[in-house]
Amino acid sequence: MTTDIDTDIEGNDEQATKPKVNGSAAAAILLMLLEDEDAANILRHFDPDEVKGLGAAMFAASEASEDQISGALSSFIEHCRDVSALAVRAEPRIRNVMTEALGNVRADNILASIAPQSSANSLELIRWMEPAAIKKILVAEHPQVGALVLSVLKPGIGAPILEQLDETLQTDLVYRAARLTKVTKAALEDLEQILTQQTGGDGEKSLVPIGGKADIAKIVNNMNKVKGEKILKSVKKVDKQLGQGIEDEMFIFDNLLELDSKSVGEVLRSVESDVLSLALKGASDELSEHLLSAMSARAADTIRDEIAERGPSKRSDVEEAQKAVIAVARRLSNDGTIQLGGGGEDYV
Question: Which of 8, 79, 108, 245 fits a disulfide with 25 by CB distance 3.0 to 4.6 angstroms?
Fold first, then answer.
């Protein structure tokens, strides 16, 4: 009987009795061999998508053969050889030594500047919450708290929640979230207190990076197009530069890969060849070929020759050329000629 677990197994005739098991298949077998409590403690460190994947692999692992189990254990042992014994429980051991030698205050001050930064628990908690619970926080808590929550949501989750809020709150949250690029750990601990009803930590001021305009643009991009445009218009009234910054992030040059050949052709017909050749200087081979394949062979060869003849170009000039191409794409989208990426369907 063939199961999904076979797809992660490598082996040959010489090692038929001890196949090599990799990836989720090996992880699933190892989890199935552990006590329930130990397996649960390990799963707590994965995000929701990874847990789903491992769960599916664990069902498949229930049909694993003895040879496959042996292969998974061998793979685990091989990986363990590369892990230094010094790495085991390194952080608590170092903290204990520092505290014993220097006392709590001095140890905490030193460790705050040298210890690797870890993600706040609150950010992980949000990813597991039900949309209704997230919406309740966005409505009930201070907008700055709501902005922090919104900024860490995946676009597919954040967009439908944002659509359910009233327009004034939508604008306020998007405006605040787009301006966030870093947040103090104290603020994260306040959020964690709201989510878990537990007290925060020492309020140290080290900063944790978050997405800002780019992540908010993804959320707005996943919303109903009319509602998304209304939010952007409202944000621009509050801060024109910020609103434009969000809009700029909603469709970038690499997103041209998402357009079909017909739409690409519409865009390129309105772009001068010298602008296109300069824009493609900073593009990946995949994107370049995607765009050039929408042109005639002769026209594409001409662009390739222009690119080769240009030599080195300033990054700022390339970015300006790419913005010019994007501006054409946006204009054609607004005219209804092409369809750029966006959220739900619009009905009139």
Answer: 8
Domain boundaries defined on the chain: 4-83, 121-246, 251-334
CATH classification number, 121-246, choose in 3.40.50.720, 1.10.220.30, 3.40.50.2000, 1.20.1060.10: 1.10.220.30
The answer to whether 232 and 167 have CB atoms below 8 angstroms apart is: no
Report DSSP letters for 75-90, one per residue: HHHHHHTTS-GGGTTH
Token pair, residue 347, equals: 């009905």
Would 121-246 and 251-334 be classified into the same CATH topology?
Answer: yes
Q: How far apart are CA 3 and CA 7, in angstroms?
A: 8
* Whether 171 contacts 235, CB under 8 Å: yes
Q: Give the residues across from 183 on adjacent strands.
A: 208
Q: Which helix (H) or strand (E) holds 184?
A: strand 182-184
The burial of 129, by beta-carbon neighbours within 10 Å (0-12 exposed, 13-18 middle, 19 or more buried), is given as middle
CA distances (Å), origin 118, targets 64, 121, 151, 209: 36, 9, 18, 11
DSSP helix, strand, coil percent of the chain (3-state; round to 5) = 70, 5, 25
The torsion defined by the Cα of 151, 146, 178 and 343, in degrees rounded to 10, comes to: 70
* Per-residue pLDDT reduced to its tens digit, 130-182: 888 888 888 888 888 888 888 888 888 888 899 999 999 999 999 998 888 77
DSSP output for 138-174: HHHS-HHHHHHHHHHS-HHHHHHHHHTS-HHHHHHHH
* Under 8 Å between Cβ of 244 and 322: no
Q: Which tokens belong to 130? A: 């039900």
**How far is 348 from 224, CA to CA, in rounded Å?**
13
CATH architecture, domain defined by 251-334 = Orthogonal Bundle (1.10)
